[in-house]
Amino acid sequence: MREILFVVGSLLVLLLEKYVLANNSISWLGAIVPVVSIVFILWLLVSKQLSFDLLDILVSALYVSLSFIFWGQGNDLYHRRTIKKIAKQIYEGTRA
Asked: Please, which residues have CB within 8 angstroms of residue 20's CB and are 6 or more apart in sequence?
């Protein structure tokens, strides 16, 4: 049950990262989830709730990697939206 909650919670946090936190003009806001995920995993390792076996290390590395990937994708979504808006303004300006 704990594993299912971890997976569902991780997916929700990553989606929040991509579509809310990183998808705006404040780029450092998207860095919150990757930094918190690194701190959280380090805390789990120090408190001995996460062992140094291969599976735990792979899951941890995958989660941190995904948080950085989703941060980049969210930032890219913002830049695409901005470029589309600017292109629309330029197009409307040339038509007038």
From this structure: 74
Predicted TM-score (pTM) of the model is 0.76
> 21 by DSSP, 3-state: which?
helix
| pLDDT tens profile 23-65 | 788 878 888 888 988 898 888 888 888 778 888 888 888 888 9
Total domains in the fold of the chain: 1
Helix (H) or strand (E) segment spanning residue 2: helix 2-16
Q: Spell out where the chain has E strands.
A: none
Question: Which of these, 14, 7, 25, 22, lies nearest to 66 by C-alpha position?
Answer: 14
Rg over alpha carbons for the chain, rounded to the nearest Å, is 18
What residue numbers bound the domain in which 69 lies? 2-95
